[in-house]
Each structure stands twice: as C-alpha cells, then as structure tokens.
Amino acid sequence: MKIKLILSLLVVALACATTSYAKTIEVEIFKKKYIPAEITIAQGDTVIWRNIEKRQYHNVWFKAEILEEPDYFFPGESYSRTFDKLGVHNYECGPHPKMKGVVTVIEQ
Fold it and tell me: Which tens digit of pLDDT belongs to each residue from 71-89?
C-alpha cells in the first residue's frame, strides 16, 4: 500500500514539474532597430531575431559572452538562442554598434 502511494505521489510530482513549457519570443530587426529592444524571459526560453529589413544585414553579438563577432544574417533570415543562464544579457549588432538590446532571464 505504501509503495502505491509513493508511486502515485511521484507521478503527480513529475506531472507538476513538467507543466512549465519553454516559450519562443520573437524580436524583429527593422530600420536598424531591435523591436523590442529589451525583453524579459524565463530561463529555458528561446529568442528568435528575424531580419525583416529589405536590404540590410545584421547580427546579434553578446560581446561580454562571445568574443568573436558572429556571422551576419540577411533579410528573410533569422538567428535564435536558448537562454539557460539567469541574468542580464546585453547585445548589439556588430556592423551597426548603435543597435543595442537586452535580454533579461529570470527563473520560471
């Protein structure tokens, strides 16, 4: 009887633990701006940056975390990153350093 009760409680605990789903958040790049420029997400969420410019290339460079500048992506292309580390993650566009953004990652 005790084993059945323990197993039942374990199943309920696992079901509750897996009900938090990671989200995907989109940031558009248009007119040399990240829209929105600042977002707050939960740990484990993914951000997708979509370049909706007509002719301009961009990138998403987390300079404090990645020393080497990442590849550019062109109109119609995108870049994504899943965030597991809590905290504030500042980024900018390598070819356009005035373009800046912030991803703040909080616990779920």
Answer: 999 999 999 999 999 999 9
